[in-house]
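Tutorial, part two.
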Amino acid sequence: MTIEGKIIQVLPLQGGVSKTSGKEWALQAYVLETKEQYPKKVHFEVFGDDRIKANPCGVDDIVSVDFDIESREFNGRWYTSIRAWRIVKQDATQAAPQEAEQVSNGQESDTDLLANEKSADDLFTDDMVNNNQLPL
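Running the prediction step on this input gives:
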């Protein structure tokens, strides 16, 4: 699965030694905010020192995160974790052309629709009239 958004928080690095294998482990957690009309905050983790070093990111980075979701039961309660296995940074120059392309294609975002205070029916009717597909 993939999710895109902006890193809004980098949580403290956690680490320790496994009781069973005796090997050291590391876990870096982040909070990402999606780019939807109603943004959602998503807490995810990167497990393993090699993955943490291979996927560095900081606050305000725009990223695309590939992840797995896993749930497990412990003492009668269920816990779910989102484990990232790849984080791809998108720089500002990549994000800006996408927004400009939407404007040049005449597409309006949901926030533009709200700002214009037109309903979907009004926009549909306007589009039909402009394309001579609906009699006046």
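Helices lie at 49-54, 92-104, 110-116, 120-130. In part three we will examine how such features are distributed along the chain.
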